[in-house]
Design a protein that fits this description.
The protein is mainly alpha-helical. Helices cover 62% and strands 8% of the residues. The protein has a two-stranded antiparallel ribbon. It has a two-stranded antiparallel sheet with strand order 2-3. A hairpin with a 2-residue loop joins strand 2 and strand 3. The longest helix is centred in the last third of the chain and has 27 residues. This is Cobalamin biosynthesis protein CbiB. Keywords: Cell membrane, Cobalamin biosynthesis, Membrane, Transmembrane, Transmembrane helix.
Amino acid sequence: MIGHRTARHEAFGMVSARIDDVVNLIPARLSGLLFALASGAPRVALAVMWRDAGHHRSPNAGWPEAAMAGALGVRLSGPRIYAGQLTQEPWVNGACTDPTPGDLQRGLALYFRAMLGLAGGLAALALL
């Protein structure tokens, strides 16, 4: 993966990875806000987003991930395996339970509502 933090890949893709971080700074936060607004619990989703977005190793991925975790009432991220090695990443919304297949369905429905909201908002802007 370009920009992945290993000795082999970091030098190869460091510049492109940092450009990606800068370019996605605003869209990542807006997508988290969109997920929160499309959820049934926007205050909870926003609170988790503000509290836990920085727990993610990516400066941008934590925003929508934390909003989704708060909206669904589940924990995300956490320890995982990269290249055969367990990494101890912090949990996002760690006090909650692991997601279930039903939570995946709810997450997809939330994503769909958020995209409908985005399309509606862009259509309204186009009419101005």
